Amino acid sequence: MPLKELLRAQLHSVRSDLTETYPHLTDDLLPWAPAEGMRTVQGQFVELISTERSITDRLRGVASGNPDEEDAPLWAAKTVGELVKMLDETRALTLQLLDQSTEEELNAQVKVSAGFAEYLGLETVTAAALFSFIARHESYHAGQLVSYLWSRGDNPYDWD
After folding, report:
1. Which of 42, 65, 117, 119 lies 20 to 30 Å from 158, alpha-carbon distance?
2. Nearest CA-CA partner of 152 in 31, 32, 19
């Protein structure tokens, strides 16, 4: 299986998991978190979008801007629908970047901090590893949103 196909499948699979939460998220839940100090529902979306954007910036060789300025429109969103739209737009750009990448580019080393490489458990971080990280990162936060909803009595095993 070509690497590009595998990465696309990972990104699609995890997005399918995340979209299962959408019908259960309401606008009034955006500022809610299960406990003090935990990221809010809106914060989960901000984390997903901003991380994916920063990774794709790195892949494109573009320096990320000021996080507060770049995240401001995400925090200004007032509805789940607005956040989902921004999430979808971000993913569309990620997939476009993936589609434009050659196998050689996907296997090429990407410069990241030593700490991030260590976190990934890799001596050499490739573009493919960063695309895979986007899926891994999204999976983690999709799971958090499922747990948030479950803590409110919305059992995911009852979802159609």
Report:
1. 42
2. 32
To 5 degrees, how large is the angle CA 20–CA 132–CA 16?
15
Cα–Cα distance measured from residue 9 to residue 121, given in angstroms and rounded to the nearest whole number: 22
State pTM to two decimals.
0.94
**Token pair belonging to 135:** 């899926």
Helices (H), ranges, the chain: 3-19, 41-60, 67-76, 80-100, 103-106, 114-120, 127-151
Distance between CA atoms of residues 51 and 124, nearest Å: 20
pLDDT digits (tens, 9 = 90+) for 66-99: 888 989 999 999 999 999 999 999 999 999 999 9
